[in-house]
Amino acid sequence: MENLITLFQDPAVWIALLTLIVMEVVLGIDNLLFISILTNKLPEHQRARARRIGIGLALILRLVLLSAVAWIVQLTTPIFTLFDHGFSWKDIILIAGGTFLIWKATKEIHHTVDPEPTPDLFDSQAVSLTFTAAISQILLLDLVFSIDSIITAVGMTPHVPIMVIAVIVAVTVMLLAANPLARFIEINPTIVMLALGFLLMIGMTLVAEGFGVHVPKGYIYAAMAFSGAIEGLNMLSRKSKRKQREALAAAQAD
């Protein structure tokens, strides 16, 4: 306890903590989008519970991984070389997770564009999503995002308590934002396509990172913010036009 108090007497520690919290919250957006889109496919009475369980498992998983942070750091050590690039376990996990995210986003985009059941490879109506399947998929992506964020956090501070506090705060924010975000996505179909496009881009970024091609996260989130702002303007435009039509219809009725 005394060591923890002494630790927080250093201003640099507070700066590192705030930076980590912001980073964890921003990185959590990817995970939250996936959770929101996936759980919206479940029956309505299961959605909130699935989100709570999925985000709760994300917290548990990250805390468990933080307790084994020395082992996590070793995941960056190359285990084999291919095409002059040394691949580590982290690279393999990122490639596998990114490929899964690309597959899932492509599948959902396909179903959104063509919702009729077909024998197509990407048809998502062939088998209904179960509660267990949803939690399993959430946990899989939790693992990928958790390892990526923890390795990034280790590069920012050597203090595990700081990482633990940042993770708890970030996951709490995710928990509070999960239901409002899911409802917003559900009632705005165009946002669903935009979010799926983001997930597709994030999946491709994870695969690129796995192959040693670093893509600055700032570019990704700047593109997401720009697209989100444009879609916000489109929503305001549609709302304004709808009000004009309603006003015109009311005037004609009089």
What is the secondary structure topology, with strand pairs?
Elements: H1 2-7, H2 11-39, H3 44-67, H4 69-74, E1 78-82, E2 85-88, H5 89-113, H6 131-154, H7 160-187, H8 189-210, H9 217-253
Antiparallel strand pairs: 1-2
Helix pairs in contact: 2-3, 2-6, 2-7, 2-8, 3-6, 3-7, 5-6, 5-8, 7-8, 8-9
Overview of this protein structure:
The protein has 254 residues and is mainly α. It has 2 domains: 214 residues; 37 residues. The chain has 9 helices and 2 strands; from the N terminus they run ααααββααααα. Strands 1-2 form a two-stranded antiparallel ribbon. β1 and β2 form a beta hairpin.
Name the poorly predicted regions.
none
Give Rg in angstroms: 21 Å
User: Structural class of the secondary elements?
Assistant: mainly alpha
Helix fraction by DSSP (H/I, runs of at least 4): over 70%
The SSE string, one letter per element, is HHHHEEHHHHH
User: What spatial form do the alpha-carbon principal axes imply?
Assistant: globular
Number of strands: 2
Strand order of the largest sheet: 1-2
Main sheet? 2 strands, antiparallel
- Structurally, how many domains make up the residues? 2
Tally of alpha and pi helices:
9
Question: Proportion of β residues?
Answer: under 5%
Note the gap between the termini. Answer: 74 Å
